[in-house]
Amino acid sequence: MTTSQEELLPATRRALLHRIAVAQAEGRTPSLVAAVVRDGCTVWHGARTSVDGHGPDENVQYRIGSITKTFTAVLVLRLRDDGVLDLGDPLEKHLPGTGAGEATIAELLAHSGGLAAESPAPWWERTPGSLRPELADVLGEQPLLHPPGRRHHYSNPGYTLLGALVEKLRGAPWEDVLRREVLEPLGLDRTSGSPQAPHAGGWAVHPWADVMLAEPVEDLGRMAPAGQLWSTTGDLARFAVFLARGDDRVLSAETVQEMRTPAAPAEAADVVDGSAYGLGLQIQRWDGRLLVGHSGSLPGFLANLTISVEDDVAAVVLTNCTSGPMPAVVGADLVRIVAEAEPRFPEPWRPLPEVDASVLELAGQWYWGTHAFALRLTPGGGVSLEPLTGYGRSSRFRANSDGTWTGLEGYYAGELLRGVRRADGSVSHLDLGSFVFTRQPYDEGAPVPGGVDPEGWHGIGQDKF
Q: How do residues 286-298 score in pLDDT, each as one tens digit?
């Protein structure tokens, strides 16, 4: 990845710097460092610090807390893509005897496995991991607080189990597997389990006075897969590009898209807030923009990684205080500033390289009952179906080898769409999961379910009400 701040306009760069300056001052944090990625490249880096004459650069490590979970999720998805496990497998199949084995791997990834949010006391973030040497010490006597799969309940022990799963199936420590399978292929050589100089120190800032207290730095032991890592804005910027586009050396674009797809039942408050959780990634609707990524915190540090895939813009925000700034809000603002000030150029329109005449014949207007829809051809042999006016179910469809299409989203995800022809080869109707779409509303020449009134369409004067 190259770094070129000149790719952003001066006014945009000033707006970004102003935003982190406000965050550092109002959040009363010793330092705050940020980066912005656009079109796969780091285009801006900024820092604000309380130390005169020195600002941390993109190579200074901060602790990133729960962003570690996204790295652990990548390792688990690699196991799935390698055919070692299925996300629907119960944990017990691969890691027996935990007491939480009825939860599936997908549920653990999405924090819907029913596990407790934290390990038993004392608080694991400020105590040595040596106090919890075994999985039983992390899970406690009652690992499950909720029936698996019923609700989204954020769980740090759940990701400890996933890290143990990686170790069991790969036959190596979690951090070694992470370095070999993710960090080295992506060039993240400043991401590590232990701090490597140069790195920031973690601080607590007194809520009522401008004084600071050093926070302890603990090795989290078994809990490491939930929050151990240290990283930099430079490395996390590269990681953001991977999460948006994929990298076949680690995970395909299709698999990282799966990670970005909601996978947990939404709580009522989540519906109101427009938030969801995928497979190791947080998802948020923010000011009309869909953002994915993850936040993190450990005593002395706050972190955030935010990506707008549609805008092809991402932001990283790292700071070294226990509370004060709100990195998720700052990250969303940095993305918004770039996306609004310098909107992404659309790809040039280009005609399809080729088109099947029999498919082109299906394009155009269709009716489900009296509701008008349009079927359009899309690149790669796919089609889309969407209402012409108002609200209604819409979806893109992937082409199959037998001339049918499979729905990719919404109500029609996984449903089969096919064009039905008469004996003479002419098009009769579309069949979509038993729904019949016709060229005219309730077309008499098509097999409309329930039949068509033989008296046909007529005005109010021909009938009695």
A: 989 999 999 999 9
